[in-house]
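Q: Please design a sequence for this.
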């Protein structure tokens, strides 16, 4: 008798282990940096017994960055698993579909035309990124749609790749208008520098990410059914177009908000669902939290590395994630032949 590989008990255990690992690396990250704080000093600060300097280091610099890295990873992991399931393609992600590039273009609009005019707003940036991502997704679906025919996942991805190149060209054109400080910001954003490590941005991003992940988890049964194929789902009585639209908007909103405040972390949305699927299997009730937690773990681990290992300068977190992820990405390609 063949023993079932993926069980509910195993999935729950994996999710618990991932949460423990995130907490563990968060604690290590609090202790690490150019000015080391011992575990006892960190505990004293958390209990309200720290010095002014220790409070400044922990509450104003390290904790916002740690919380932001976890939120960005949670958002990109959940968005990636939804897109891969809806399109039934393992290569789908906010990055490969061009949605991250659309959000990035609107982030650049914000930097050039709004922030430079002194109209900076902590809410405007994620909203603009969401509008950019939504317009990019709408354009992809519009160009891929053919009356009387079902949407082709391959057609959607190829259209997204083409449009992503176009957004990249527009982004390059607009960067020519930037001054030195704006150019530094955009280069750091594109490299994934976790630039929005500020409690004001986190106060906006946290409810955005947690509510949307809750909605996606609530729809996990729908994702299980859609993953069987659109015709099968329709045969089971599911309103495919309505569910597809609602889940797509949620995924776009998640990825857009995450990249707006965190930076370009498209590899997390591509890799985290694959890692989670290997650990807990295809059931979305277990896969969605596992992919989210895997994304959070990858980003907080990479950020801890950038702050503890001497890499010869201030290396953006996204660069470390890309270096770590590329071998696994190539392994997936080789395995998929």
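A: Design:
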């Amino acid at each position: 008798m063949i023993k079932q590989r993926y069980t509910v008990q195993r999935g729950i255990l994996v999710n618990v282990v991932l949460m423990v690992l995130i907490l563990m690396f968060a604690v290590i990250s609090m202790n690490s940096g150019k000015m080391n704080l011992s575990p006892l000093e960190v505990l004293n600060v958390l209990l309200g017994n720290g010095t002014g300097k220790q409070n400044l280091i922990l509450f104003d610099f390290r904790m916002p960055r740690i919380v932001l890295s976890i939120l960005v990873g949670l958002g990109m992991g959940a968005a990636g698993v939804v897109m891969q399931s809806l399109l039934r393609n393992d290569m789908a992600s906010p990055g490969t579909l061009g949605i991250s590039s659309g959000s990035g273009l609107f982030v650049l609009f914000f930097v050039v035309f709004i922030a430079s005019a002194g109209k900076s707003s902590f809410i405007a940036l994620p909203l603009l990124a969401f509008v950019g991502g939504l317009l990019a997704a709408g354009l992809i679906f519009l160009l891929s749609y053919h009356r009387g025919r079902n949407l082709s996942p391959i057609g959607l991805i190829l259209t997204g790749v083409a449009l992503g190149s176009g957004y990249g060209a527009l982004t390059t054109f607009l960067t020519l208008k930037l001054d030195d400080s704006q150019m530094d910001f955009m280069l750091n954003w594109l490299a994934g520098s976790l630039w929005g490590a500020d409690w004001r941005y986190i106060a906006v991003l946290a409810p955005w990410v947690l509510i949307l992940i809750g909605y996606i988890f609530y729809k996990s049964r729908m994702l299980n059914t859609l993953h069987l194929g659109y015709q099968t789902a329709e045969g089971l009585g599911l309103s495919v177009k309505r569910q597809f639209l609602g889940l797509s908007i949620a995924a776009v909103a998640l990825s857009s908000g995450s990249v707006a405040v965190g930076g370009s972390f498209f590899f997390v949305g591509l890799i985290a669902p694959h890692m989670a699927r290997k650990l807990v299997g295809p059931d979305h009730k277990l896969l969605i939290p596992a992919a989210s937690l895997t994304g959070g773990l990858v980003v907080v681990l990479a950020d801890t590395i950038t702050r503890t290992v001497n890499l010869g300068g201030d290396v953006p977190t996204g660069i470390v994630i890309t270096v770590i992820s590329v071998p696994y990405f190539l392994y997936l390609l080789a395995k998929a032949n």
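Q: Thanks. Anything notable?
A: The chain has a mean pLDDT of 83. The longest helix spans residues 52-87.
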